[in-house]
Design a protein that fits this description.
Keywords: Membrane, Transmembrane, Transmembrane helix. With 133 residues, the protein is an alpha+beta fold. The chain has helices spanning 53-61, 66-80, 121-132, and strands spanning 2-9, 15-22, 34-39, 46-50, 93-97, 102-107, 111-113. A hairpin with a 6-residue loop joins strand 3 and strand 4.
Length: 133
């Protein structure tokens, strides 16, 4: 099920590609949230999944500790006034091309890295906007 589909155009109105967002699900088996980037022309298609299998395994194994941790963070936020302290699901997303090469990497707080020979910068900016929304 596609949760969102976005067309990307260049400055001259030429189509650069399409970004699709698929929601994660639990049934029939767990699936992570996923973004697909389909490039027009000679671009590189890529697929990115939220988190890695080991970060999700770590998250699930420590889930009994999340409730006390959230309560402690809420108390800390009330005392300190900082509201950006909530833990959550793994946030890192790595986009891999059809050949398995890394084309775009998003670290937890919205820091993106494009390796040499990676994704087109214009499409990467569009991906950053879609992921942030």
């Amino acid at each position: 099920m596609v949760a969102g589909e976005y067309e990307v155009y260049g400055a001259g109105g030429e189509p650069l590609g399409r970004i699709e967002r698929r929601k994660g699900r639990l049934v029939p088996w767990p699936r992570r949230r996923r973004w697909s980037v389909l490039s027009e022309g000679a671009g590189r298609d890529a697929v990115g999944k939220a988190g890695s299998w080991y970060s999700w395994a770590f998250y699930v194994l420590l889930s009994p500790l999340w409730v006390p941790l959230w309560l402690a963070l809420i108390l800390f936020a009330l005392l300190d006034g900082d509201t950006d302290v909530s833990p959550g699901v793994p946030r890192r997303v790595r986009w891999f091309g059809a050949d398995g090469a890394l084309v775009l990497d998003r670290h937890g707080r919205g820091v993106y890295r494009i390796p040499p020979g990676g994704m087109d910068v214009r499409i990467a900016y569009a991906v950053a906007l879609v992921v942030a929304a």
